[in-house]
């Protein structure tokens, strides 16, 4: 319960702050949230299914769709 928020803060401030901090300071949290909520869990699940040879096309398409939805959500924030 305490480690995840600390890691999220560290990634947002230290890693993504250099990328988005100068241009769009409020979007560094959005990019970090995209990674932690949409990209990392889906990729880890896809990789684990692939290693177990249980990855099917419908599962792959579904999880890639989740990543695309998260990316679209972050991009929409630039226009609001």
Automatic annotation (TrEMBL):
Task: Tell me the keywords, alphabetical order.
Answer: Membrane, Transmembrane, Transmembrane helix
Q: Name the residues that span the membrane.
A: 27-48, 60-79
Q: What is this protein called?
A: Putative sodium-coupled neutral amino acid transporter 9
Q: Which domain of life is it from?
A: Eukaryota
């Amino acid at each position: 319960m305490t480690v995840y928020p600390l890691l999220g803060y560290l990634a947002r401030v230290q890693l993504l702050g250099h990328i988005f901090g100068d241009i769009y300071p409020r979007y560094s949290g959005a990019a970090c949230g995209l990674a932690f909520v949409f990209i990392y869990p889906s990729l880890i699940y896809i990789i684990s299914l692939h290693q177990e040879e249980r990855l099917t096309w419908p599962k792959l398409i579904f999880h890639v769709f989740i990543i695309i939805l998260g990316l679209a959500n972050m991009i929409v924030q630039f226009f609001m």
